[in-house]
Amino acid sequence: MVGAQIPLAIAKLGASAMPKDAKKAAFDPKVFLTTANGGRTISKYHALQEVFSQGSPADSVFYIQTGRVKVTVLSEQGKEAVVAVLTQDTFCGEGCLAGQLLRMATATAMTECEIMRLEKAAIICVLREEPAFAELFVSHILARTIRVEEDLVDQLFNSSEKRLARALLLLANFGKEGRPEPVIPNVSHQTLAEMIGTTRSRVNFFMNKFRKLGLIDYNSHLEVHSSLLNVVLHPHISADHEG
Predict the structure, then answer these.
(1) Which of 67, 81, 141, 173 has the fewest beta carbons closer than 10 A?
(2) In what order do the strands lie in the sheet with 222-224?
(3) Domains and their CATH numbers in the chain
(4) How many C-beta atoms surround the C-beta of residue 105 within 10 A?
């Protein structure tokens, strides 16, 4: 009986003496999303380079590590609309996980970007096996859904001046977690017009108005001041009634 217990005691001793780093490390979503391995690749994109295009096979999800990406949709009539501007630490192209076979939009880098591509099978696997990653991804989906609802309300009920002010504040990360980034890369007036559903001339008019009021500055870059919030929070400030 004693002899039978000796191997067991040795086994327990060996387990307790095992270095901690030899045990399986806890899953870290941030490490996972910054390490190329097992169906994950990282690529650099220059400004205006396409990440994926409308109508191409939807076989992967992308994670923006650095930079900004705009998502656009082109109608059969050739009219283009910007449906989202995504910043770092966000996903795009996740429609493939819901059975989407072809891309419904085009994603284009607005600045220099570093983006991870996760093959569909790889992200499905980690969603099933790692609760920490699943929680992170669900939080992203919920935040995106809320943003879409807010954008719809904004489009339906707010003037073009107020929509533009809100778009600029969102680009500068006002109202998001973390500190605002008042200085952002220049965004063309045409892109802003496509984002808020108005004409370029209307955007030109309001951008000049905001600058004269000291709400923004723009030359080589665009600087958004917190005082622009007044246009969104206090409708009487807006002089636009054309929508």
Answers:
(1) 141
(2) 183-184, 222-224, 216-218
(3) 27-157 (2.60.120.10), 159-243 (1.10.10.10)
(4) 21
